[in-house]
Write a structure and sequence with these properties.
Strand content: 5-15%
Number of helices: 17
Helix content: 40-55%
Order of helices and strands: HEHHEHEHEHHHEHEEHHEHHEHEHEHH
CATH topology of the largest domain: Rossmann fold
Largest sheet: 7 strands, mixed
Structural class: alpha/beta
CATH architecture of the largest domain: 3-Layer(aba) Sandwich
Number of strands: 11
Shape: globular
Length: 397
């Protein structure tokens, strides 16, 4: 979607219905509403179009005023084995972008079914320095360079071309990341320089594992925005004279809050959830959060308990508010938000329609339909052979 956004001025994203996916690909992991919520939250998406046809037709594309259809450099076929984009290709209105390597729905389902831990990241700093990971020293360095470039690409604004979110790594001890008894301010190392808070914006902090970044996480972040907009109305943020002043000083308007999202290490998540959680490693989870339009900065390796020392050491000062949502998946033995509560800055997001959608819920869905998803995996492999043959026939001789 980022590559597609960079090709034009607007990006419309079609989302297939559950029925269309079942017929052509196999059972869905998330419902249509949950997938629509995910697409609508992507910073680079201008508009989400639910129930898009599985085979893209010219009238459909033209109806929405789209000049081109963009897809990855692999072929997607329908249930009859025909190319889903054959009509727009024939009309010269198809554009190809590089397929993002490393992770897919198929990969994630495989991790869930096999309960593997090979995707875990031991050290964010070590991985980005090319010191950790598989392969030779040269391969690790190349992988680190590619990963850093991807983080920088994701830390862009709505156009996908200009700086967007700020990205830090919190350098603190492993004990402080996990233990609520340890007070440690640590230090914030800048990984990507992005947009900083503007005059009058409240600094808001949220944190979590954000595993299998789903509608539950997205709705929580969206509600944080809603709460802060409501607070902005109370303090006159949307008064015409205040808006005019922001335009005068900055040449643009901006929201009343600057949202910073802390993301916990794999080892911290695994300590609390056990098994092979998190299903996505910290970089995969971080990229998911980074592309979300509801956040403005990301902290990798954030401590599980935001202590007073940690909050007071944050780059833009002590947050005005620390939000937390309705969590039922982690069996806590203590309250990790004691410090922000004592500081009078803690705010609780109430229940919402997607609060039950978390990593555990998604894994349960797959395990309850294990046979169907294993069949999906086999069908996917068989289908990929046919698609690869069709793709090779399209390549220039």
């Amino acid at each position: 979607m980022l590559q597609a956004r960079r090709l034009g001025n607007e990006l419309f994203v079609g989302v297939h219905s559950d029925e269309a996916i079942l017929e052509n690909k196999g059972p869905t992991v998330m419902t249509l509403n949950e997938r629509v919520a995910a697409v609508e939250a992507c910073r680079w998406v201008t508009r989400c179009v639910p129930c898009a046809p599985y085979v893209t037709s010219l009238p459909w594309v033209t109806h929405y005023g789209c000049q081109y259809v963009v897809h990855g450099d692999d072929i997607t076929s329908d249930s009859n084995g025909n190319d889903c984009y054959r009509f727009v290709k024939a009309a010269g209105r198809f554009r190809v972008v590089k397929r993002t390597p490393g992770i897919s729905t198929t990969d994630l389902v495989g991790r869930m079914l096999l309960c593997t831990k090979g995707h875990f990241v031991n050290s964010v700093e070590g991985t980005l320095a090319g010191e950790e990971g598989s392969g030779s020293e040269e391969e690790r360095r190349k992988s680190a360079t590619d990963l850093l470039q991807r983080i920088q690409d994701y830390a862009t604004d709505e156009s996908g071309l200009q700086p967007g979110p700020q990205v830090w790594i919190w350098a603190g001890s492993n004990v402080a990341k996990l233990n609520h008894m340890v007070e440690e301010g640590g230090s914030f190392e800048t990984l990507i320089r992005g947009k900083v808070p503007k005059q009058g914006q409240r600094i808001v902090y949220v944190d979590g594992g954000f595993d299998l970044f789903s509608s539950g996480h997205i709705e929580f972040l969206r509600q944080v925005i809603d709460y802060e907009e409501s607070e902005g109305h109370q303090r006159g943020w949307y008064d015409p004279e205040q808006r005019d002043l922001r335009f005068k000083n900055y040449g643009e308007d901006y929201p009343p809050a600057y949202i910073v999202a802390g993301i916990h290490d794999d080892s911290v998540i695994n300590h609390w959830k056990g098994l092979n959680y998190p299903i996505m490693n910290i970089f995969e989870r971080g990229l998911c959060v980074l592309q979300c339009r509801y956040i403005h900065a990301v902290v990798f390796s954030a401590p599980f308990c935001p202590s007073r020392s940690y909050l007071e050491s944050m780059p833009f000062g002590t947050p005005n508010a620390v939000y937390h949502g309705p969590t039922t998946f982690i069996p806590l033995t203590y309250d990790p938000y004691t410090a922000p509560k004592e500081m009078g800055i803690f705010k609780q997001i109430e229940s919402h329609d997607f609060q039950h959608v978390n990593a555990g819920e998604i894994v349960d869905r797959i395990l309850k339909s294990r046979e169907a998803f294993e069949a999906r995996q086999r069908a996917k492999l068989e289908k990929s052979v046919v698609e690869e043959l069709a793709q090779s026939n399209e390549r220039p001789k």
